[in-house]
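Postdoc handover notes: sequence design on the structure in folder B. Input tokens:
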């Protein structure tokens, strides 16, 4: 129940900030050099901007409760329609990035933990530092230069990956779609592979040194069985929390990635709305991200209780 008051408070803060931003909700119209004072007054009346800020917020909140987020001030498109149309592309990119990050990040963390201070552990640690410190926009541009502009020659074949867009034609082609996914998925996954591998390694190291793990080894159980059957579930308890709390970051990270790769998703929609100071689109997107943050916090609590039977919620 705490989620509803929290989202209400977030909406108030966001509405106040965006309403007081330079130019305000009428910024796209004020860029027209031919606009007159009468036009501005009429627009203010049509958008309800001649009303006090609390009244405008309550009107906006009333529309949100009814499932309506208003209309874009840049092209008059319905905000809900604009977000829903671009959601599948973002979900595809986020889903592929999440699966890749989860598999590689957890695998790297386990590998480094069962062979601490080995060459493999140092390589994983170096990769993690690289992934955490690499600027997303620069890494994306370097990948485009290396694999899209210059191309790659291997085994006598030269090939280049697409540098932008979600497909090469309007006809659905799985192979073509997969090629367009490669570079943005790598860019979006890099930080999370690095972060989740470090957390997995740290958590797994603690579990490996516990008494019950040594007892299982003394009984003659296979090492891999000990790690995956007895140790992994306990090691993943803190990792699941970190992963769940990181998921909204995929949406934020997708803003830069989608913009650089011209991916037609919600991140690029937000970037364009930010440049055009589109009040309604910005509020709709930011509230959607806020809902995701709260939802994944709740999901993290549920997953934590499922992994650790000692945790009980009343």
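Designed sequence:
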């Amino acid at each position: 129940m705490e989620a509803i008051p929290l989202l209400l408070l977030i909406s108030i803060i966001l509405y106040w900030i965006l309403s007081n931003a330079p130019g305000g909700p009428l910024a796209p119209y004020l860029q027209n050099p031919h606009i007159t004072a009468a036009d501005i007054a009429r627009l203010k009346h049509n958008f309800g901007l001649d009303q006090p800020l609390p009244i405008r917020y309550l009107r906006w909140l009333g529309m949100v409760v009814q499932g309506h987020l208003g209309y874009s001030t840049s092209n008059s498109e319905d905000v809900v329609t604009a977000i829903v149309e671009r959601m599948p592309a973002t979900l595809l990119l986020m889903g592929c990035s999440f699966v890749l990050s989860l598999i590689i990040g957890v695998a790297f963390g386990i590998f480094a933990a069962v062979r601490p201070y080995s060459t493999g552990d140092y390589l994983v640690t170096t990769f993690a530092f690289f992934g955490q410190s690499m600027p997303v926009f620069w890494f994306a541009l370097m990948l485009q230069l290396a694999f899209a502009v210059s191309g790659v020659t291997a085994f006598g074949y030269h090939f280049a990956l697409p540098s932008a867009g979600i497909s090469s034609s309007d006809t659905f082609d799985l192979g073509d779609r997969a090629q367009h996914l490669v570079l943005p998925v790598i860019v979006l996954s890099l930080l999370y592979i690095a972060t989740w591998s470090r957390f997995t390694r740290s958590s797994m190291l603690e579990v490996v040194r516990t008494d019950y793990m040594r007892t299982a080894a003394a009984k003659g159980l296979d090492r891999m069985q000990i790690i995956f059957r007895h140790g992994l579930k306990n090691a993943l308890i803190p990792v699941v929390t970190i992963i769940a709390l990181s998921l909204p970051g995929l949406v934020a990270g997708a803003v830069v990635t989608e913009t650089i790769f011209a991916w037609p998703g919600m991140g690029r929609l937000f970037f364009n709305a930010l440049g055009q100071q589109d009040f309604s689109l910005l509020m709709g997107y930011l509230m959607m991200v806020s809902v995701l943050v709260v939802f994944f916090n709740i999901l993290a609590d549920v997953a934590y209780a499922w992994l650790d039977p000692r945790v009980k919620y009343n």
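Context for whoever picks this up: The radius of gyration is 24 Å. Don't rerun without checking with the PI first.
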